[in-house]
Write a structure and sequence with these properties.
The chain is of the alpha+beta class and 484 residues long.
Length: 484
Amino acid sequence: MLRYFRILGMIIPLLLAACSRPETPDPLDPDKPEIPQTEEIQPVSYKEIQWDEGVEYVWDENYFPEITVSVPLREWNALLVEYDRDSHTEAYIHCDVAFKKGQEVTRIADAAIRLRGQTSRRRPEGTKGQLHQTHPDWHKCHFNVNFQKFHKDEEGHDLKGIHKLHLKWFKEDPSHVREIFCFDLFRRAGIWTALRDHYCRLWIHVEGAPEPAYYGLYNMLERVDNQYLKRRKEQFGSAKGNLWKCVIGADFTSESVTRMGPDAADKDYPYELKETKGTYEEAAAQLQNFILNVGGLNDQAFYDWIRKVCDVDLLLRTYAVNVALGGWDDHWNNSNNFYIYFNSNHPTDYKFFLIPFDYDNTLGTCQNCGAQNDAVRHDPYQWGNQGILIERLMKFEACRKIYRDELTRVITAGNGLMDYAAATERISRWHSRIKYFVSNDTGEGMQIEDKPASWGTHPEYRILDPNPNVNFFKVKAQTIRAMK
């Protein structure tokens, strides 16, 4: 209770300050001076980042690593019992991990593994109440592997310097390529905040079983954590700020200003603090300042302020790629699935960054959500009604131009980004490489199919079919060109 009074004490002065700010000219009023254009910012290429040895080794796209997780029987049963107690459990269990790349095998003893997923967390074997069986009924799951959970900073408890991996199965993507394609496109477009990811093959070996169970093809993703920040320290300006995970409800409106918590707190909070070098109270005060300014400043004051605290060019180009990909389960339309980072602990002097995250529901997988039910044909300039930050930026022609130019660049032939020829060439190449590894011991996701998720509102969309009425890349390009 005392914590809530402290938070309230931080909020009241900020609210009073916001209310007392003097009025400044409305930039949308034709009788007022025009707001100057955003400064020209040279985008940072992904290739310019100096990746450490571990990143280059683990996410080497020339290989599909083979990961075998060996689990003591008592630990596996403990995970099953814990899941039955709490289906959102984040409990880790002990395991050993072997990472094979080509002929080289790296072994990490006494590592840790847990289940993960916001709404997709599953029991990895059997049904409620069952322990490990002689003839197991395996279920694909998302996993987190933490090599240092039980041996922090100890030599031999990392993978070439990598501490954690997010292993994600293609649960809602019969094509086995959507998220791989999306993060690849972000990186090709120079969005340096995008995660590193690549295919891997996963085996789970429970003690006593005659052989490991092949769980199939997985996406091996970089974790958004302190290591992620350190790898991009030069671009962020500092790796000692505050990192927040944002889920449904993270809309930056004043109504959400107290709905935040520290890591592993109440999961109903839309803002969850994941990394900080200061205190939770300091990080909360900073985020509250940001939220109150996003919603409380008048237009010109907002425009002047956001250009000081944010790389607006990067933010809008990130969003253009997100919308081009059909990312409807996002900040703008559903206030969901992203991280934010403030590169200092100061309550008002910081740089803000939005980090794109979770891209399996894209490329034609649509849902009745927010302002839309068709993420392929929906107006890219009226994408949603939940994300006040992007809504406010889109009022200004200078911002719309950045966004419009990036949308156009992404779909233009010859750029190697998302025009039909370039996109389908990459997808076909991935499919030719993964087709031998899809069938697995769980019986789930056993083949590659060119269709969206089964629950989608538009089952007709395809990513490889050349029909201009159903091909995602062709229809999306037509939509972008028609709505400038």
